[in-house]
Amino acid sequence: MTWKILITNDDGIYSSGIKASYEALKDLGEVYVVAPAVQMSGVGRSMSIMKPVRVSHVHFDGMDGYAVDGTPTDSIIIGIYEIIGELPDLVVSGINMGENVSAESVTTSGTVCAALEAATQGCPAIAISQQMRDEEKFEFVFKPKNFSNSKKVLRLIAEKVLKSGTPAEVLNVNVPANCERIEFEVTRLAKRLYRTRVEERRDPRGRTYYWISGVEVEDSEPGTDIHALRSGKVSITPLTIDLTAKNLKDVEVWLNTNYD
Prior knowledge:
With 260 residues, the protein is an alpha/beta fold. It contains seven helices and eleven strands. Helix 1 crosses helix 5 (148-164) and helix 2 packs across helix 4 (110-121).
């Protein structure tokens, strides 16, 4: 059997992280690289429904791929329905430049949301990210990084999914920047990775503008993805595309209670 694997990301097709994913998986079957043409971090699950999406076949650094003039979600849809023409056996989103931990990050990350889109389409999906310093996270061009541990982790998890299936619709994997040995922890999402910060600035013409950023939290409670990562462990968080809260009965009681 020849497996079909689709790789995407939100850092852009020329990111060194997507090259690392390709190197880790290229001998497992037919590997297709379909990713945004440029940096698209933080776009979440946005889709280009109000403009055309153009695709270019590219070859660089020993890798063939398709550069999509759109979002990571666009890349998944085009990759499945136009490039491959059927559901692949596995979708891998990443390796992302910088961790994607906490509920805050997984709902804004183009990398994680691409995996969620793949799961919605019916594909087993892995989102994988590597912890990095803030100044390294949003590169626009290829810069070599050490992805050796992330490649080992990805290869191991991908083979498990391909051979025995997946225990969750999406596996959100985060790898520490530096660890002497690979140790895994199955985690839940922390609430927030950043303390939001808004800076007011002025442009050269004296007009006010705002720069939205954040300061990373130092840690979170045990059992969370942030705590595992800060402890030097590989965090694996199972995600579901069903965002329904579990307290349906509580909502029914609330709805039917007269507070007058």
